[in-house]
Design brief:
It is built from eleven helices and 14 strands. It is α/β, with parallel strands linked by helices and about 350 residues long. The strands form three sheets. Strands 3-4-5-6-9-10-11-12-13-14 form a ten-stranded mixed β-sheet. A two-stranded parallel ribbon has the order 1-2. A two-stranded antiparallel sheet has the order 7-8.
């Protein structure tokens, strides 16, 4: 398939140009685009195309397909964790979460991750490559096909650092939002980043009002630098300045993700310092009881410390939530299933 085009990677305009090169009329692109985003896996299923065009598509293109290598379903809340195998044999993870407001797909953006955050399972098996826009889209389509449920919300919080794969991420966002495709509104999409400052500023100018989640996890550079290597390049002050630019340009409230790690970043002093830094920002804080990851000594904060931390932030007028642990019986945090499957040499 090396010389063939993955049709899922093409946006509407690229598909038009691709078909024009095959001597096809422009309207065919919209027909094919709609079929692709319904989750069909072969040109023969495109029943409103001529047999000749379907055969030609088979000769010059293919429709990427993720294979389910493993699947875990939570008995507690129906959360479903997928280990998907890509066309080249690499493995990624996705998660389907069920909420009262609908179905959310959490997708990966890279095979592995190069950011090296010490508490994250995604880092353990190393970085291999970026995912294409079509491979990200295919995670959503595959979840819909397997579950029979429509995905109405997408969070890009799986394996990888999305803004380290910037061009493909932006293309994916436009694909998933397109009215002839899945038509998922930007306000129903969240992207989580560890804090690549230039890309945050660049994203603010894309005119895509998604929710941006910042993996902050510390109130100062000393602690953040120990657990998140990215902080050595972009300090908290630089990161927060980029966040202010994002909120000013997009008028969208930010989420600060804060993993509560016992004895590391969960003290009363840590909460006061964090509150002092972000109290005037358009934001809310999501406290996350950290997942236990093999190979690290990190343990989640106890409930008393979490409640104290939350109370201090709320006392400064900062809206604060504690993340509900979905799929806790299947280790639903991204990276753990792949980490237990991939052999690290």
């Amino acid at each position: 398939m090396e010389d063939k085009v993955n049709l899922l990677d093409l946006d509407a305009e690229e598909l038009e140009r691709f078909l024009a090169a095959l001597g096809q009329e422009k309207f065919r692109a919209r027909q094919i685009y709609q079929w692709l985003h319904k989750g069909i896996r072969n040109a023969d299923e495109m029943t409103n195309l001529s047999k000749g065009l379907r055969q030609r598509l088979d000769e010059v293109a293919y429709i990427g397909k993720l294979n389910v290598a493993n699947k875990l379903v939570s008995r507690l809340d129906g959360t479903t964790k997928y280990l998907f195998e890509l066309n080249d044999g690499n493995l990624i993870e996705s998660v389907m979460m069920l909420y009262k407001h609908g179905v959310t797909a959490c997708i990966s953006s890279q095979v592995g991750c190069r950011m090296g955050c010490s508490f994250c399972a995604s880092t353990g098996a190393g970085f291999v490559r970026n995912l294409s826009a079509g491979e990200m889209l295919d995670q959503v389509l595959s979840i819909q096909t397997d579950s029979g449920k429509r995905v109405g919300n997408v969070v890009i919080m799986g394996i990888g650092e999305p803004l380290d794969n910037y061009d493909n991420i932006v293309k994916f966002l436009r694909l998933v939002n397109h009215p002839d495709g899945l038509n998922i509104g930007y306000r129903h999409i969240s992207l989580s980043t560890c804090g690549l400052v230039p890309e945050i500023i660049k994203l603010s100018r894309e005119n895509m009002p998604i929710t941006l989640s910042i993996s902050l996890h510390a109130p100062n550079d000393e602690i953040r630098g120990q657990i998140m290597p990215v902080n050595r390049k972009y300090s908290i002050d630089k990161l927060l300045e980029a966040c202010k630019i994002y909120t000013e340009v997009t008028k969208r409230r930010l989420t600060f993700e804060y993993a509560m790690i016992s004895g590391v970043n969960d003290s009363r002093e840590n909460a006061l310092e964090l509150a002092g830094r972000i109290k005037r920002m358009l934001c809310h804080v999501n406290l996350i009881p950290v997942n236990t990851v093999s190979g690290t000594s990190y343990k989640k904060s106890n409930r008393q410390n979490i409640n104290l931390f939350r109370g201090i932030l709320e006392g400064y007028g900062i809206e604060t939530t504690v993340r509900r642990e979905l799929g806790s019986d299947i280790n639903a945090a991204c990276g753990q299933l792949r980490r237990n499957t991939v052999v690290v040499e």
